[in-house]
Amino acid sequence: MSKSRIGIAIVVLTTLLSSAALAGVHLGSGPLGVARFAAARVLSLGRLHHARAFARHGRIRTASPRSQNVRNAMDSGLGNPAVRRQVAAAAALAGWHGGRIANGWWRHGDGGYGWVGPLFWPFAIYDIYDYSIWGDGIGFWDYGYPDIYAAIFAPYGHDDLAAYTGPSPLDRRHRRVPPLPQLCGDDSGEIAGLPIDQMAQAIQPNEVLRAALDDLANALISAARMIQASCPAQTVFTAPHRLAVMQQRIEAMIKAESAVQQPLGKFYDLLDDEQEARLNALAEDRRKMSPAKRATEAPAQGCGAAQSAALQWPADEIEARLHPNDTQRAALKALQDANARAVDVLTAGCQPEDAITPPARLDAVEGRLEAMQRAVSLVSAALEGFYATLSDEQKAQFEAIGQKRTA
Fold it and tell me: Count of alpha carbons within 13 Å of 296, Cβ hemisphere only?
C-alpha cells in the first residue's frame, strides 16, 4: 500500500470505531475487466450497513492502526458518504489551530467541510455520482454560499496551511493530515468508484446494454481525472486567490459532469421498465443505509435553509480593523451587495423535486454548479475591486478576521 493511501486511511481510522470493529468490514475485490469495471471498487449493501454503524458511533482516536485495519478502512470506507464526511472533517480540523477545536465554524450542516486547508470540495466526484446515480444528495447539495463566505474570511492562517503542504515529519499536526492529492483523488480508477458491477448484477444487461455500461465506466474515469487535475498545485493566502481556486474547481466539475451526461443518458435510455425498477430499488436500498437519510428526504428545503442561515457579515469587525475611508466603504458596500446577490442565486438554484431519474439529476448537478460559478464570479469581481483600495496592512487585517474565529 502506498504512503498516500496509508495517510488517508489513518484519518479514516481516527473517525471510526475500534480496530476490532474495523476488522469486521473487509471487501475483497476480484479482478475486473479493464474497460468494464475500471471504475469499480464497491461496497455491498450489507457492508454499507456496517459502515453506517461506524459513522453513527465513531469517535476520533489517536491510537496507531494495525496494517490490516488500514487496509480494511481503505477498502470499505470512502464509498460511504458518511465516512467521507468524517474523513473531510478530521482533515479540515487537524491543521486548524493545531487540531485542538472539535468543530470548525465553516462546517457544513451534514458534518462535512467544503474547505480542507487549501482544497475546496474534497471527494467531489463521489458527491456528483452519489446524487446523480443513487439520489443521495446530502453531500452535493450542502455546498453553497457558506463556502464562498469561508473563502472570503478563511479559517486558516499561514501556519495552519503548512500542515497541508509543508513537509515536517517531526510535527504531530503534520502527521495527522493526509496528503492533499489523496483528498483530491490521485487515483482516477479508485475515485471513480461507481459500483458498476452492482448495477450489472441488478439489471442483467444484454450485449448492447453492457457496452453502454462500459462507456459509462470509462466516462466516470475521465471525469475523475478532470476533477483531480484541479487539485491546487500551491497554497494561496488571500481571499481573491481563494475565490479563483473555487472557480477553477467548479469549472473542472462542470466539465466532468458534461463528460458523463451522454454515456449516462444512453445507458438509461436502453433500460426496459423492469431493469429501471431494479436499478431504482438498488438506489433506494443504498439510501436506506445512509445515516443522513432523514436529511436527504428534504434536500431542497435543507439547501434553502443553508442559504438563508448564511453567516453574518462582520461589518463591525471590518470597520474596527480596517478603519476604511469613504472610497473603501463604497467598495465594501459593493462587496456586501454582491454577496447578497450570490445568496439569492444559490437559494433559487436549490435541488429540484422533480429530478427523479439519473439523467435528470445529472442535469440538476450542472445547473447547481453553474449557479455556484455565477455566485462566485459575482463576489470575486466585487472583492477584487475592494482589495484594490486597501493597503497591505488593511489586507492583512482583513485576512485575520476568519483566522481569529474559533466558533
Answer: 21
State whether the Cα torsion 297-298-303-305 is positive or negative: negative
Closest by alpha carbon to 358, among 138, 98, 129, 110? Answer: 129
Q: Find out whether 184 and 249 touch, Cβ atoms under 8 Å.
A: no
Cβ atoms of 331 and 386 closer than 8 Å: yes
Q: How many angstroms separate the CA atoms of 79 and 29, rounded? A: 13
* HSE value, Cβ hemisphere, 13 Å, CA-based, for 55: 28
Can you tell me the distance from the alpha carbon of 173 to that of 98, in angstroms, rounded to the nearest whole number?
6
Q: What is the pTM of this model?
A: 0.79
The region of weakest confidence among 76-90, 255-269, 293-307 is: 293-307
Q: All 3 cell numbers of residue 115? A: 474547505
Helix (H) or strand (E) holding 198: helix 196-203
Helix or strand holding residue 119 (H, E): strand 119-120
- 202-261 pLDDT, tens per residue? 999 999 999 999 999 999 889 989 999 998 888 899 999 999 999 999 999 999 999 999
Nearest to 244 by CA among 118, 335, 101: 118
